[in-house]
Design goal:
CATH architecture of the largest domain: 3-Layer(aba) Sandwich
Helix content: 25-40%
Shape: globular
Radius of gyration: 25 Å
Strand content: 15-25%
Bound molecules: ligand MGD, iron/sulfur cluster, molybdenum atom
């Protein structure tokens, strides 16, 4: 045994020990900084300061490995840019003039404002927004409903709530449950095939996802590699040759935005060639004949013309997927980020349903939160009277707004309510863990203009972001992961998180929400601090787990028992009968809930509105299909731009085009270029990507420059490289879900001194520019 192994072996099972001057703490992480995962870590602190982070070799989730973003956490936590206490705006919005206040003073200002809004306009005039799956995705909903008394919680102007929500809503309505690719993550013993039923998938379809960089939705990308080492083969659906695509049997290099058409064509092949699982379909699926009829028109020839993927590749991939047993599909964000996000998710879900890969070892498994803990976007919603719930903005989209799935208000409708005062005005906005004008809003300039008109805005974040400088009346500095006592469920396992350090006078989301809740609606906040709240959740909302926070910190991670083929065993329905938790008791290939609400019950596909075929006149001027926001390991959205390590690896915003396209435009690697369309423009640096179709451009999202001046008109250069100057807001599917973040058009030309005289940020903040 080498030295490192014997060190970890010696401390196996311990949650805290001394190592020279260091205290070592074994725990897990989860924002800030952000990530969808919650890996096991060993924190090394000296005199209360975090100095080093290692992966926990005993944690079954990440098995000792860590990404650079966790490795550089000491740099983030101890960063000199972090505000040390609450701030109150002193100058005009955007001037970056602040007065330091105490926490009590900040709370006094907020409380007074909230009570005035309650009296003058009603609680529903307050909206609360958060970013993606970070450690405040139940705290801020609870703040919104149980402290402010408003039904208007949603994501931070994320158009069409198009991050995981469309896939979730499609899965929940079709299966009555959520499904994920089975990489053995639900077993503490992981890849041990002797003591569990797990087997590696024979085929893994990586569809519109780059898990090696994104580790999205509680799925660690390294698991795919672990399965490859155990024999799994790959099919990858991606416009770019990712690391995984390069190791795949089939790489389907599709035109961005055409995933739905591709899935329908694969279903066509599988059904017409009789490659589906007849027995499973007959017993467990509802509406197969209707689906078969619908996909008839989607021949591989037709899909080739739409998707730009050769028909033989489509046929080959469909056969390879259907014949592999078991096979699994791991999908990602591009499914959601199309107006047809919902029907695309229906089509892909139908693929794993008709091939009999539902809830079998190595297939797509049904997963629920550990120990039935269910704190989510609905947490606290039942504290609202029915008449207040009925006022939720976006109520015209019942799939989204009604409690049941992960219901929320509709971001785009809230934007319109701010702009038009209809159905009623929004007066106050709470923005926590979201930086919409840098990142989340698809039409950033439009959101900038709208939010500036609000009476009162609170921003809570570990850093002073462009959003904070542009809008905040009160800024509350938020704790990072290693500064928080809390817990996490995102499927499995249940995880404890222990505070090991404290930067200045910052507070955690749990603490901030508790403090305010106790002032505004004390009956809903019978705890006094973060640990008290965590205990309340563990004791009252986690029925299968016996421990409290202290116990969970000792356990670190706890895995509940898991069973396959739950539909056969009566484990899914409240009535205890076999079957799925849907109206028909089967997987609804024909979605009867959609039919009830007047949506197309079957999957279909439509051209994005801005595309070579739907808008040929625009395509003439903007000859590239633009996809945006592919993740890179150095950043989580707009985060990590302050950190030297991340910026050393990735100093500038990059966009990609093929060598041939670059040459034709007279551009070379490293050139700063303008990306432009009929809505707006931004500048990024060219990286030539030989794997791209000559007609496709791939651009990054989330860029701002903390090293630049905070005050407007510079505003950290937030609009200068912002690809969301080129995207629309309020273009959603009939369910309210889905938005075209990854299927636009653009042109590209070199930046010159002449055409760069006016930068986008000055244009937006000083001249009311873009998105009219
Ligand atoms: N490091 C890091 N990790 C992250 C994030 C981050 O910002 N940084 N963000 C988190 C969040 S909120 C999310 S939602 C996830 C998203 O993470 P993923 O689901 O992995 O999605 P993306 O990285 O946006 O895109 C994945 C791949 O899709 C390809 N692609 C682009 N357009 C299309 C298309 O139209 N169809 C198909 N099939 N493929 C396309 C891109 O080339 C890219 O390789 O990542 C999470 N994890
Ligand atoms: N063009 C384009 N735009 C996109 C995407 C794309 O693919 N293309 N992806 C979209 C997607 S899928 C998503 S989910 C959104 C993501 O958008 P967001 O989730 O809003 O991400 P950020 O803008 O980085 O804002 C997050 C902020 O939260 C702070 N923060 C981190 N952890 C915590 C915490 O625990 N508490 C508090 N209070 N603050 C914290 C960070 O410092 C940061 O300033 O972006 C969307 N925008
Ligand atoms: S996936 Fe990477 S960044 Fe996310 S928690 Fe795990 S190690 Fe950290
Ligand atoms: Mo996301």
């Amino acid at each position: 045994m080498d030295q490192a192994n014997s060190y970890y072996e010696a401390h196996k099972g311990e949650v805290e020990w001394r190592d020279g001057d260091y205290t070592v703490t074994r725990t897990t992480v989860w924002s800030g900084p952000g990530c969808h995962d919650g890996c096991g870590v060993l924190y090394y602190t000296k005199d209360g300061k975090l100095e080093k982070v290692e992966g926990d070799p005993d944690c079954p989730f990440n098995q000792g490995t860590l990404c650079m973003r966790c490795l550089e956490m000491p740099e983030a936590v101890n960063h000199p840019d972090r505000p040390t206490g609450p701030l109150k705006r002193a100058g005009e919005r955007g001037e970056n003039k602040w007065e330091s206040v105490t926490w009590d003073e900040a709370y006094d200002i907020i409380e007074e404002k909230v009570r005035a809004i309650w009296k003058d306009y009603g609680a529903e005039s307050i909206a609360c927004m958060i970013g993606t799956g970070r450690n405040n995705c139940w705290q801020i909903p609870y703040l919104c409903y149980a402290a402010f008394g408003s039904p208007n919680f949603c994501l931070g102007f994320l158009s069409g709530e198009s991050c995981f929500q469309p896939r979730s809503a499609a899965m929940a309505s079709m299966n009555g449950d959520f499904l994920i690719a089975d990489m053995s993550q639900q077993f503490e013993s992981r890849y041990d095939t002797e003591n569990t039923e797990w087997v590696p998938p024979e085929m893994i379809v990586v569809w519109g996802c780059n898990p090696i960089a994104s580790n999205s939705d509680n799925f660690y990308g390294g698991w795919v590699v672990d399965c490859m080492q155990r024999g799994s083969r790959l099919i990858t659906v991606d416009p770019s040759l990712t690391w995984l695509a390069a190791r795949s049997d089939y790489w389907l290099r599709l035109r961005p935005g055409t995933d739905g058409a591709l899935a329908l064509a694969m279903l066509n092949v599988i059904i017409s060639e009789d490659l589906y699982d007849r027995e499973f379909v007959e017993k467990w699926c509802y509406g197969f004949d209707e689906l078969a009829e619908r996909v008839k028109e989607w021949t591989p020839e037709r899909a080739e013309a739409v998707c730009w993927v050769p028909k033989d590749t489509i046929i080959g991939a469909a056969r390879a997927y259907a014949k592999a047993k078991p096979a699994t599909i791991h999908w990602g964000l591009p499914i959601d980020q199309a107006v047809v996000g919902i029907p695309t998710a229906q089509a892909i879900n139908a693929l794993w349903a008709v091939t009999g890969n539902t809830d079998v070892p190595g297939g797509n498994i049904i997963i629920r939160n550990a120990f039935e803990q269910n704190v989510s976007y609905n947490y606290g919603y039942q504290t609202l009277p029915a008449e207040v719930q009925a006022k939720r903005i976006g109520a015209e989209y019942p799939l989204m707004s009604k409690a049941g799935f992960s219901s929320t208000a509709h971001s785009d409708s809230i934007l319109q309510a701010i702009e038009t005062g209809k159905p009623y005005p929004i007066r106050m906005l709470w923005l926590s863990s979201t930086n919409p004008i840098a990142n989340m809003a698809s039409d950033a300039p439009r959101v900038y203009r709208a939010v500036r008109t609000l009476d009162f805005v609170v921003v809570s974040d570990p850093f002073l972001t462009p959003t904070a400088v542009a809008f905040a009346d009160v800024f509350l500095p938020a704790s990072m992961s290693c500064e928080r006592n809390t817990q996490r469920v995102w499927w499995v396992p249940l995880r404890g998180m222990k505070k090991v350090t404290q930067f200045a006078d910052v507070r955690s989301d749990d603490t901030i929400v508790t403090d305010l809740g106790r002032r505004l609606h004390p009956e809903n906040f019978p705890w006094t601090d973060d640990i008290g709240w965590t205990n309340d959740i563990l004791v009252n909302d986690t029925p299968g787990y016996d421990g409290d926070f202290e116990q969970l910190c000792k356990d670190v991670y706890v895995y509940p028992a898991f069973e396959y083929r739950k539909h056969e065993k009566g484990l899914l329905r409240p009535d205890g009968q076999p079957g799925f938790n849907t109206p028909s008791g089967r997987i609804e290939l024909y979605n009867s809930i959609f039919a009830l609400w007047g949506y197309d019950p079957l999957p279909q596909w439509e051209e994005p509105s801005c595309s070579p075929y739907a808008s040929p006149e625009l395509y003439e001027q903007y000859p590239f299909v633009l996809t945006t926001g592919a993740r890179s390991v150095e950043f989580f959205h707009s985060e990590h731009r302050q950190l030297e390590t991340s910026r050393e690896f990735h100093p500038d915003p990059l966009f990609e085009m093929s060598p041939k396209a670059a040459e034709a435009a007279g551009l070379s690697e490293g050139d700063w270029c303008w990306l432009e369309n009929h809505r707006g423009r931004c500048r990024q640096k060219l990286h030539v990507n030989p794997s791209l179709d000559d007609r496709v451009v791939r651009a990054e999202h989330g860029w701002w420059f903390p090293e630049q001046e905070a005050a407007e008109p510079v505003l950290f250069g937030v609009f200068d490289s912002n690809i969301n100057n080129l995207l629309p807001q309020c273009e959603n599917g009939p369910t309210g879900y889905g938005a075209p973040y990854k299927n636009q058009l653009c042109r590209v030309y070199a930046c010159t001194e002449e055409n760069s005289a006016e930068l986008p940020t000055a244009c937006v903040t000083r001249k009311d520019g873009y998105s009219k």
